[in-house]
């Protein structure tokens, strides 16, 4: 069984280049919100859902305004994941699973648009959102209003999935097989946010590891160039974050055939698209 991977951008934010990569300067750069669309025999798996117009509204009240001010959201009605899928003839109900790398607004903005999907997310990340309030919530970049009301019923904790062969992702470990055929493998990438996940997609031509925000710039993976020091404050666990970067770096060296793709690196996304098309 083979799967096909399409890479969509559901809106974007902007901030200075040096935030994502130390020394990259203060010029504003575009940070697209990546959505991975995996077509398989039984339907469609999404990896993250990007921004949707509701995010603008969600981040316009109370303390969430601070987040919206720091990372302005740009997303038109046609840019949401559900609208882009519809334009490709894919109905929201065709989506069987949404793997959420983590619960930040730029990853769960479109989640409410897929009411039939199982939501693959670390249970402890969802538990945390219920616990933290105010500044703590802001620091963690969480906007609970973006989560579906019936999330608890549709939640699929990756720890409950069958184990996958770690050989493809070593030195990462803890791989889990989402569809039972090894084509979509969920891998813990801890550090950036509680329970952060990555997804290995094995297409007919290439293996692609969607790493979410475990790396913001592919040079973090290829050259271990880390984000600005301020990002430490916004990371759930900075030492684990740097260990995950080290592990991704070793994986990329061991497997030069593997496309390691951060969720917000515009150039890397464009290149991956071109490679997947060949
Ligand atoms: Zn993000």
UniProtKB/TrEMBL annotation:
Signal peptide: none annotated. Residues 32-264 form the Metallo-beta-lactamase domain. It comes from Cellulomonas algicola. Its cofactor is Zn(2+). The keyword Hydrolase applies. SUPFAM superfamilies: Metallo-hydrolase/oxidoreductase (SSF56281). Keywords: Hydrolase, Metal-binding, Zinc. GO terms for molecular function: hydrolase activity; metal ion binding. The keyword Hydrolase applies. InterPro entries: MBL_superfamily_lactonases, Metallo-B-lactamas, RibonucZ/Hydroxyglut_hydro. This is MBL fold metallo-hydrolase. Belongs to the metallo-beta-lactamase superfamily. The lineage of its organism: Bacteria, Bacillati, Actinomycetota, Actinomycetes, Micrococcales.
